[in-house]
Write a sequence for this structure.
């Protein structure tokens, strides 16, 4: 997960959690994963969003957070098209707002979760 999502001062909200089991997890470069990222970029933006990665090449899931709109928009979480999502109420102090990623780039760097950018120092 993109570390920028973690915020001990974050507000309460709602989260759509997609966890793809290892045996059915697509490659991150699968067109379905790319299309879900494009749908997120098409907006309107969520409060925060991050993919989950298991390793440098496999999609493991996604976290989509909504703070102000309630859980309604999360029913159509683009990543839930890849694997069923669980919509959960979010207490304060876990996730914070993260600005939407600049588009249209949807590539990852060095196996990092999207939308994290850059390469590790090592």
């Amino acid at each position: 997960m993109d570390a920028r999502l973690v915020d001990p001062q974050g507000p309460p909200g709602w989260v759509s959690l997609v966890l793809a089991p290892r045996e059915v997890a697509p490659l991150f470069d699968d067109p379905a994963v790319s299309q879900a990222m494009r749908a997120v970029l098409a907006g309107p933006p969520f409060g925060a969003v991050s993919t989950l990665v298991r390793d440098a090449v496999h999609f493991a899931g996604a976290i989509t957070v909504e703070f102000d709109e309630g859980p309604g928009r999360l029913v159509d979480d683009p990543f839930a098209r890849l694997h069923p999502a669980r919509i959960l109420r979010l207490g304060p102090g876990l996730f914070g707002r993260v600005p939407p990623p600049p588009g249209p780039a949807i590539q990852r760097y060095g196996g990092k979760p999207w939308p994290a950018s850059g390469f590790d120092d090592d």
About this structure: The first strand starts at residue 13 and ends at 19.
